[in-house]
Amino acid sequence: MTRGYHASSSSFSLKYMHSNSSISTQTNARTNTNKSSPTKAITEIDQFSSVVTPHVEIGIKPSPLTSALMKTDRLLVESLSSAGYDCVVLPITNARYKGNCKNYFLEFRKRNMIHGLNTSDDTPTDGNSTSNYHGRSSSYSSSMMDTPSSGNDPNFSYETSFDHENGTTQNNTESIDDATYDLDILDVPYPELSEVNVVNGPHISKTVGLLSSWVELDNENGLINEFSLQVISNEVSYAQYIGIHSLLIAPPKNMSNLQIYAANINTILEKFPAVCISVSLPMCEDSVRDPTSGKIIPTTDPFSTWDVWNSIRIQCNYNMHLSVSLGSPKTNISQNVVDRWLLEPVRFYLLSSYRFIPNSKHYPVLNKFNQLIIWKFIQRKALYPPVLLLHGIDKLKKEFAESLNLNVRSSTGSRSQNSEMNPDDDKSSKSGNTSFLEYLRYLVGMSYKNNQLLPLENFTINNFLSLNLSFDKLMSPESLQSPLSPLTVNLDNNTYNVFEQDHAKYDAYERAIIAALRDLSAIDRFSYFPQKIGNNNKSCETLKFGSDNANNLKLKILVVGSGRGPLIKRLFSAIEKLDLNINHISITTIEKNPNAIIYLQERNREHWGNRVTIYNCDVRHWKPTYEAEVGFHLVISEMLGSFGCNELAPECLDSIQRYCDKKNCILIPQEFTSYVAPVISPSLFSKVCRIKNEHKFDRPYLPVWDEMDLMSTDYAKVWTFNSKTCLTVKNYSIFDNKHNKRQAHVVLKCHRKGTIHGLIGYFSAILYKRVEISTCPTGLGPEPRNLVSWLPIYFPIEQPIYITDDQELSIFMKREYKDTRVWYEWSMEAFIYLLSPSQRLSTSISNDQSSAISGKSAEASQVRVRTAATRIHNPAGKGYCMKLC
Q1: Which stretch of DSSP H or E encloses residue 227?
Q2: Full-prediction pTM beyond 0.90?
Q3: How far is 46 from 298, CA to CA, in rounded Å?
Q4: Which residues, in sequence order, are bridge partners of residue 297?
Q5: Rg (CA), the chain
Q6: Which end of the chain is more exposed for a tag (fewer CB within 10 A), N or C?
Q7: d(Cα 592, Cα 614) in Å, to the nearest integer?
Q8: C-beta separation of 862 from 831 below 8 A
């Protein structure tokens, strides 16, 4: 029996069906419960064609002036909540606290020098850094800007996707020796009542905290670094105390000091393990326009911001409470970039008012590419969709103010279309704010009509939505399934029921059976079948021989591993479609599950006229009751696993070769092939890391729903098993399995940078002639398109491999055996091609000569340099094996 997507989810659900999945908005581990029953919603759509729209939260970040116009933070949050927003982003502290901290810093620096005098100005003054930035070009840094803000250095401003608090940092011309100050006595004051923007109350459950951006967590200077860390720690401590557990933090200002920034983030996560920190980053570098030609200059590295996030995440050891908040792009970006971010824990999707344009009716809408990105995030992350976070909408553009006919008051009392919206103005708050909100609600509601996923992904996510599991359960290591062990584990009734929903698989099997029966009926010994089968001619020749001969001349069919009988059902359907006389066909089935046998016996009696001979035993130990029963002409089996051979199909089929007709026997499937590809999947790797088992990286897993993406442009064939091999095995013994050993060494090209977390395995099978099934990612998904019975199989690696653009990956895999055990071993190496010294010299001497070198010569002049290697995983099957008995 196969291992299916929903089958895995159903077994997983048995443990957690009654778990409480209600979690507040403010936590990172939240449930995405639909407002209506998910199960009811699923029945209203085709589970393969689209994903049930989950409940997507929409939040808002009001401007400082809008916040100031409200008497209390509670009134502000409650007002925006009543307007329809699910959460509100508020800074934890205000300008008074910044001023107090600055004064403390200056006083400390003045009074606590241990030796020497400092003449440089090292004060972390107001916010947007003009600091020592040498890690990126100015075009990259400016692309971080989402809205214009004052006081920015034209050469660098590493802003996130919405306005953090404004400020500047002076460029240090002289550095201070850290030993100048005694950092042990540095004690930044905690905020007081007048210095905080949020106080305790029932509104806290709908509040997301914004940490100060004027500090410099990436500053190399020890004093500024420690000062910044203490400021942030004070804010986090207070936020945690009043019940805010989800906090947004600004990105690093200086990419050259990313390690310093990551170290401070990690310190905060370790100090406050109940708090979730989300780093704000743009989705991609924005394209820039050439000032001379006016042409758009594409970004040099579309994955640069992902690279920043990846470095922070790795240095923080894949901390579960660390996430990323993405700013929506200004222009259309590569789908590869979007797909990469879909793998990440995106907590918020940030939407500035500057991303909206007025439609024909002058209402705010998003460009098509941003709509598609949101739909893809909603659908792929339907189990835990990011919050759509609006900001800047209370600084409406002129065209929106005019079209919405807003009554916005300036500070002088006159009407001003570009002034801050007055939250006390009922028409303003309801028209201005809700126009964006209502549009996003509409966009979310239209998600199911704009499917961006493959049928397999739709089917999996829909079934998980129906389980209504909490985020914690989904992210737990227990959600990783172990590959099925068909020879030692009997499936339950619910799992059989789920497998049988895969009509695409059984349709393919039926087509293969029809083709095989058509070919077999053309053989002379079966000439009693109609010459033109399938022509609805009900007549059939009457045999002129005795019962013994009739039994010997029957077309004999064996179904192996029949479960509850879906293959037998399709077999009878094929016989009927071909108009074959069932009296001339002998059907035998072998099933080891004693519970399924009862169901088979009932089906045989009620639907099949007791025409099926049923045996309850392991196929490898089966012996026929009488000799005339054997000599099978058609053997149909359903023992393929996620990797093809990982449910011991080769070994099981070996055992029946002695009972097959020596001249005319067809096996379905005829052959099956295994494939592998390198994969990036932070969530999978993180789950495996949290498994408490010393051999956790020495075993394969079936990822139930985890996001993953291939790092190579293709997948590689590793080995094939075919029916000819099975039929030539002599005197099969489970202790003599050398012919089923395999090994493969394959090389794949990886054109995009990323981190490889392991290998993903697929298979394809030729059922008969042109009838094939495949789980390989062809771009359109499995073949047939609605095939959902198999999960891919994940082979983890203990130490992830980081690769740059255009590297080569060498994969070595083995299928080994010893005694009654079968197992896999795997390892990888990464390579990069560099020009040899002679080629570099030739290039520097003459570009013309270099360009004249043929492609073959140029390739020969390159040096293949190894950049990484993994250990051999699962040696001698010490972590995982498949048992033959």
Answers
A1: helix 222-242
A2: no
A3: 40
A4: 288
A5: 33
A6: C
A7: 10
A8: no
Closest CA to 308 of 115, 480, 140, 425: 140
Return the structure tokens found at 96. Answer: 């008074």
Six-digit token string for 4: 């299916």
Residue 675 pairs in a beta bridge with 717, 762
- The amino acid that residue 248 corresponds to is L
Long-range contacts of 494-497 (CB under 8 A, 24+ apart): 494/10, 494/14, 495/1, 495/4, 495/7, 495/10, 495/11, 496/1, 496/563, 496/564, 496/596
Q: Which of 219, 227, 216, 221 is nearest to 118 (CA)?
A: 221
Beta-strand relationship, 754-768 and 671-680: antiparallel
pLDDT in tens, 827-850: 999 999 998 766 555 555 555 444
526 phi and psi, to 5 degrees?
A: -110, 35
Please name each of the domains of the chain with its CATH number: 89-344 (3.20.20), 493-638 (3.40.50.150), 671-883 (2.70.160.11)
For 775-793, b/e burial (b = at least 16 CB within 10 A) is bbbeeebbbbebbbbbbbb
Smallest Cα–Cα separation from 350: which of 328, 323, 376? Answer: 328
Longest alpha-carbon distance in the chain = 117
> Angle between the 222-242 and 258-271 helix axes, to the nearest 10 degrees?
30
Length of the chain in terms of residues written: 885
Q: What is the DSSP letter of 431?
A: I
- 834: phi then psi, degrees, rounded to nearest 5: -120, 150
CA distance 7 to 13: 10
The Cα–Cα gap between 851 and 858 comes to 9
Cβ-based neighbour number of residue 26 at 10 Å: 20
Q: 671-680 and 709-710: which strand pairing?
A: antiparallel
Closest to 168 (Cα-Cα) out of 177, 183, 158: 158
| Paired tokens of 50 | 């689209």
Per residue in 476-525, pLDDT tens?
Answer: 898 898 888 877 888 889 888 888 989 999 999 999 999 999 999 888 88
